[in-house]
Amino acid sequence: MGLSTGFARFDDECRLLWHGSHNFGAAARHKRGVIHILDRAGEVDWLALEGGGPLLRHWENEARRRGIEVLVYSAEEWRETLFPLRERADGERAKSYARQAAGRIILRDGPSGPREAQADAAEAICLGVAACLDLGLLVEPPDELTG
Predict the structure, then answer these.
(1) Rounded distance between C-alpha atoms, residue 82 and residue 80, angstroms
(2) What pTM does this model have?
(3) CATH number of the domain where residue 67 is located
(4) Alpha-carbon torsion 47, 50, 52, 55, what sign?
(5) Which residues pair with 50 in a beta bridge?
(6) Total domains in the fold of the chain
(7) Positive or negative CA dihedral for 122, 123, 124, 126?
(8) pLDDT digit string, tens, across residues 79-122
(9) DSSP string covering 79-114, please?
(10) Which residue range is the domain that position 121 belongs to?
């Protein structure tokens, strides 16, 4: 979890509604940004986050205040759920695969936001799909993630 953050909003059927990324630059702006992103997201039942560290608390505290369940993953955990072994051999290869997979999900769902996802947003999209699988909202990864 860092000052540069990707985000993705899914509906109840795990269809991508919108996505984006933002570099907050400072912890105080990050904290305000979390509130803004969750306000924009509207009513949500769960929030999937990657990473840890002090910035994670901003998300956890605001989610708790709103009654949102929080799921925390490492990059390795959610990538193992979705990506073939060869595509997670190293971080750069995994990020490239995430951009390709997210691009296919964007084409499928037609969300608001850019037609191409930058690395942080692409990983947020893929993380959201992994959380949908863990929560039982999807039975298997969508074809768009398997190429």
Answers:
(1) 6
(2) 0.93
(3) 3.30.420.10
(4) negative
(5) 73
(6) 1
(7) positive
(8) 999 999 999 999 999 999 999 999 999 999 988 777 888 889 99
(9) HHHHS-GGGGSSHHHHHHHHHHHHHHHHHHH--BS-
(10) 4-146
